[in-house]
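User: quick one
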Amino acid sequence: MSPGSLRIVGLGPGDPRWITPEVATALAEASDLVGYAPYLARLAPRAGQRVHASDNRVELERARLALGLAREGRAVVVVSGGDPGVFAMAAAVFEAVEHGDPAWRALDITVAPGISAMQAAAARLGAPLGHDFCAISLSDNLKPWPLVAKRLRAAAEGDFVIALYNPASRSRAEPIHAAFAILRALKAGATPVVFARAIGRDDESVAITSLAAADPAHADMSTLVIIGSSETRLVERPGTPPFIYTPRGAGGPR
Amino acid sequence: MSPGSLRIVGLGPGDPRWITPEVATALAEASDLVGYAPYLARLAPRAGQRVHASDNRVELERARLALGLAREGRAVVVVSGGDPGVFAMAAAVFEAVEHGDPAWRALDITVAPGISAMQAAAARLGAPLGHDFCAISLSDNLKPWPLVAKRLRAAAEGDFVIALYNPASRSRAEPIHAAFAILRALKAGATPVVFARAIGRDDESVAITSLAAADPAHADMSTLVIIGSSETRLVERPGTPPFIYTPRGAGGPR
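Assistant: Done. Structure below.
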């Protein structure tokens, strides 16, 4: 049995020009591709590659499948969207390793980073993440809402720019409404808010508004929401949407 | 005068396999490359490309130079390390646009994201950013220390994983010591801490310790520091450093 390997890679948010050469090499060398079906559908597997597509919300099962294949000597690539280390498959794989077959700890397991949704959204807008920021997932199937609420309050009190992942799903719309209620109580109504949807895909769209005016129902499962700090600014432009950026320091330019 | 353009691109943290195809195309098409000298030194300019290298800490001057060249009709690329949108050149360019020549607002300005240092460091370690996290720059030449301190306290109170950028420079060692003092008063001594230095470069190194045991003097200007949440865990391995990851949810595996 040859030693297997497990590469956990990120495709970025949708545009193939965001797939790093490191990830492209891993994909080309894989014997087995494992992932959530829509991510695998973005790839063109070569002849002989086995493709193991799975549903959403079965991350641990998918991780265990991948680890088992690597243990059999296969060259396995686990495919994530975005960056596998940011609200994606890498944490699921290491959770499976910690609680699974002790032999899995000796496997050759590596992670190849990718462009995460907040970075792609920020690039489209200007530089909203140009200063201190937080990334918070509103998915509540894995953590209690009081912890999410505590983090939203802390993010507001620290005056961070806030990137909200997983603001809504087909089955739940409440978290994003509850999140906006918390933030509106703690931040200025004029704070810039962006709904960045499907960035890098054909149906990409960006909506710029304010915390007071934003309709949280605007966010669906393909949306990344960015809420500014007190310093985040719009730069108006003739005929096109404004740039949005957060200055590198407090107190104006120098 | 042909219309110029300005592309603000990120090379990632050092390994050329992290340069996205989007960034590689922008570099190939540029007439002028503008950036901090060590980043430009990582490139092999083609014949005819003009290279405008500058010192550190002159971001606004560099941004204005690039905007002026684009205004003259040049195809300008501003080169950042990491992701230009994360503690890098993009915010400086939009700050220059806001406060500069009104004609700059009509320029074709775009940002191409890159792999940021925290993502590369996380990939080497496992998945420490696998759940809600903050990114904070300790550089105090552009913001008052009380704001940094407030954000560190908020990050601890929200139990975020914390990525610290610019923990030290040649001229100042105090901020990282002050930051650790704040975090030690608010977080458990056993919290995992990582000093990730020069990731993706030949002299890459990673040191894993705890908040109680960490020596802040370990951080230099090439170091990215990651401090875990209360959930961040080590997975011990035979003969190699442990994996570090932050589970996707609170309350154990499911």
